[in-house]
From TrEMBL:
Gene Ontology BP terms: DNA replication initiation
Protein's name in the database: DnaA protein
GO CC annotations, alphabetized: plasma membrane
PANTHER family (alphabetical): CHROMOSOMAL REPLICATION INITIATOR PROTEIN DNAA (PTHR30050), DNAA REGULATORY INACTIVATOR HDA (PTHR30050:SF5)
GO terms of molecular function: DNA replication origin binding
Cross-referenced Pfam families: Hda_lid
Tree of life domain: Bacteria
Domain Hda lid: 182-226
Length: 247
């Protein structure tokens, strides 16, 4: 007897799991547009016709901020700095003469020490004075960042914000397919629908379980089925219960 939760093939011999590198597809055509991110995509697509020199792109981890940052960098010839400190930012300013630039401030609330605040304030001013463009990516809007420099705080509060929100079920399915495609793995529509319906509605949860499921299938020498998908989801939930995220 067969059913939706039965593996399509009997388990084969156990095989070694090799950590092959994956290449995320970061071209504009590869970005999955949906209601939760359409406004942010429109902001990137309309460059350089922005209402000001700088834009903040915000959203939860894994939502596509880095993807859109690379889209803008390819189009504008922008330099991308990943979680820069003040020294790296000052060096980039000297080298690029305030050309198009992307600052990726990482997951969670940005940590801006006094030196980095001064450097960021200087960058915002020079960008405006020279007609350059600056994209800031972060999890939270700039108006919420813990900034002690009053002039910088006012500049950040005035920035236009492009926000990406949590995905709906349709986008969840699209993300599952894309993340497996990045790994050169094909999965059935039934598995895709199962994952989209049973995962937490967040980009990070999809990324985590796809990685787990790929490793699990390799280590067990089994196809990716709903049975294996349930195992990966349960393992992820067990870890969250055992090691809850720190607030």
């Amino acid at each position: 007897m067969s059913g939706p939760d039965r593996d399509e093939a009997a388990p084969g011999p156990r095989q070694m799991a090799f950590a092959f590198p994956t290449r995320p597809a970061l071209d504009r055509a590869d970005f999955l547009v949906a209601p939760c991110n359409a406004a942010a995509v429109a902001w990137i697509d309309r460059w350089p016709d922005w209402p000001g020199p700088a834009l903040a792109l915000v959203g939860p981890a894994g939502c596509g901020k880095t993807h859109l940052a690379h889209v803008l960098a390819a189009r504008a010839g922008a330099v991308i700095l990943d979680r820069p400190d003040a020294a790296r930012l000052d060096e980039a300013l000297v080298e690029e003469r305030v050309g198009p630039m992307v600052l990726e401030l990482g997951p969670g609330m940005p940590i801006l020490d006094a030196a980095l605040q001064e450097a960021l304030f200087h960058l915002l001013n020079l960008t405006a004075e020279t007609g350059g463009h600056l994209l800031l990516t972060a999890a939270e809007p700039p108006a919420r960042w813990p900034v002690s420099l009053p002039d910088l705080r006012s500049r950040l509060a005035a920035l236009p914000v492009a926000e990406i929100t949590h995905p709906d079920e349709t986008l969840m399915q699209m993300i599952v397919v894309k993340l497996f495609a990045d790994r050169q793995v094909s999965v059935s529509p039934e598995v895709v629908r199962y994952l989209a319906r049973h995962l937490e509605r967040s980009f990070g949860a999809v990324r985590d379980v796809v990685e787990r499921l790929d490793r699990l299938a390799l280590s067990k020498g089994r196809p990716i089925t709903q049975v294996l998908a349930r195992e990966a989801i349960n393992a992820a939930r067990s870890e969250q219960i055992r090691d809850p995220p720190v607030e």
